[in-house]
Amino acid sequence: MDARKKIDRRDLLKILAGTAALAPLAGCKANILGSPVGINRLRPPGAVDEEDFTGRCIRCGRCIEVCPYRSIVPLDATDGVNAGTPLILAEKMPCYLCMECVVVCPTGALQKIELEDTRMGMAIINNETCLAQTDDTLCRTCYSVCPLRDIAIHLKEFKPQVDTSACTGCGVCVHACPIEDSNGVKPILIDPDFVPQGESS
Amino acid sequence: MIGRWRSSIQTFSILALVVIPILNYYDFTFFQGWFQSIAFGGLWIVSPLEGLECILVSRSFYAPLLWGMLIPILLSILLGHVFCSWVCPVNTLQVWTDRLLKPWLKHRNNRFPIPRALLWYVLAAELILAVVLGKPLFVFLSPPGLVGREIMTIIFFRTVAVEGLLLLAILTANLISRRMFCRSFCPLRGVLALLGSKRRLVVTRVEGAGPGCRRCDKSCPLGLQPSIGESESIYCWNCGRCVDACNDGDLKMIWKRSSQKPQDSCLGDEKILR
What we know:
The complex is a heterodimer. By secondary structure, chain A is an alpha+beta fold.
């Protein structure tokens, strides 16, 4: 019995040492603990603050399974501790705001909200590369596809304009935009970290 | 035979992990998820350890999460950690590898003994590390959860996640020492075993049973010795293999009416399950 106890203690020390060895490893490589969210990389509708999301989400995948458009994809361990969390890659497949995922989340990582209250990010139009803004064409693709047409995107002198108080950040406009520069960057993008003017974070 | 029931449930559980994503793929979403959270319509079940991590790291309580944890917690309190032995797909995969490689695995049982109590330290270390980092870990490393996630990822996206290598590591470890991961390393087993420490369903030795042939000891996948009463310890996961292995009927799986010590009980009070 004594022998067994000794081994236990030694193993405990090993675990503690292993834990201590892991800590700096996590610190030096930013993406192990860092957020996968960025331009056109969005959390599903109703997501809690990104700071809390990794802790709230238990990776049950039910939002991924319920999404009829396969917009929500699971991350893997190359995104560190965010492995298994859901992400929407707006350029590949945007969110069509069916609001099914917010209902099935068992942990409240996705909160039940209405379509209009969804804020996954903010559509931002680059006035220098958007052909409608530079008067090269009368393109209004983003305006036509916007689920909140005339509310989130409206036309001003035939040029699409985003209303920052109404845009849900669903990314349907980004997905539809036909223009792409040599780096694959589109004139419209979704910024999940957008803070409206006059409001502090 | 307990074994036949157990095999059926194990096969059913693996089948569910394949069928549920396929149904969801074709937009039938009545059944959902896998062993992190599984939904049968409005009945949501949440794995206790993942739920606990979520509560500890987010420092908040969310009612559906707590309700979801209730059923597995109650089951473990009453039946012990039968999830591991009767349902967990990782154990089932190990059972199947055992069956497949039987001739080569004969003498493996105690080849690389690791103290059982390591289980508690792993659980404690896992929870402490999650709180210190502020990020839950078992939620994405949970082996039973990973089986479900990998199957869904294959069906939905025709790809796999790299952390699935953990499953291969567990299956390889099982070749070296029987159920090496389950025995000493699985934090989920730690939680469920703790919950089941005063379980009602126990494997117990019939009073006055003769000197053992120790067939039961050899049958135990966890290396416990039912012949000296270890089946009543916190580590027994009630798989019932020892009961099936015993030719003399000296071991019974019984339902204890109250929390009396099984040694003191006499069989007259108990409903014999076999």
